[in-house]
Write a structure and sequence with these properties.
Elements: H1 4-8, E1 9-11, H2 13-16, E2 22-30, E3 45-54, E4 59-72, E5 79-93, E6 102-105, E7 108-110, H3 112-122, H4 147-150, H5 161-175
Parallel strand pairs: 5-6
Antiparallel strand pairs: 1-7, 2-3, 3-4, 4-5, 6-7
Bound molecules: zinc ion (2 copies).
């Protein structure tokens, strides 16, 4: 059984010995060890599966990471609970020649920064509770997804002078 910490600090002495050498990492780490600093991701076990392979330029690290997160739907403000899964393919180098590469320090490479950066980038900026969430009525705030509130009776769009102006503009453009 691999301890969580050894899954984040990987000894690659054997991998570095020859081009083509590989190493498999398959661990579950406490998300606190990743120091995500993002309260959308609650403390949980994060499964990490990586394939390391020594190449001419460094060690290629490929695999996937996934984590559950919670957020607020940007249209209706309902709770959103989902899981992000990120596919990762990055290079680690002893002497950095690729500006995107991560460092190999001595005979060790650190997976935490790699996992942290990719997970944070994968979290959606504008989450939706479902892709076709109708959102709230902009006039009265009724929840359009709730059958009891969907017919709030507000005239949305047609009576909005901003839309009327846009429609006129569009008709004008179509005429040309
Ligand atoms: Zn929603
Ligand atoms: Zn309404």
């Amino acid at each position: 059984m691999t301890s969580p910490l050894s899954g984040l600090v990987v000894n690659v002495a054997e991998v570095l010995r020859r081009v083509g050498n590989v190493k498999e990492i398959d661990v579950s780490v406490d998300s606190d060890l990743l120091e995500l600093g993002d309260d959308r991701v609650a403390t949980q076990d994060v499964p990490i599966a990586f394939h390391l392979e020594s190449t001419n330029t460094g060690i290629l690290v490929c695999g996937t990471v996934s984590a559950a997160y919670s957020d607020t739907c940007r249209r209706c403000l309902a709770d959103v609970r989902d899981t992000v899964t990120v596919a990762i393919g990055e290079l680690y180098q002893r002497e950095i020649t690729d500006p995107d590469a991560y460092p190999i320090e001595g005979e060790q490479l650190l997976l935490a920064p790699l996992v942290r950066e990719h997970l944070l980038l994968a979290l959606p900026d504008a989450p939706l509770c479902r892709t076709d969430c109708p959102g709230l009525c902009p006039v009265c705030g009724a929840d359009k997804a709730n059958p009891a509130e969907a017919d709030c009776g507000c005239a949305v769009g047609a009576s909005d002078p901003r839309w009327a102006a846009l429609d006129a503009l569009r008709a004008d453009l179509d005429d040309r």
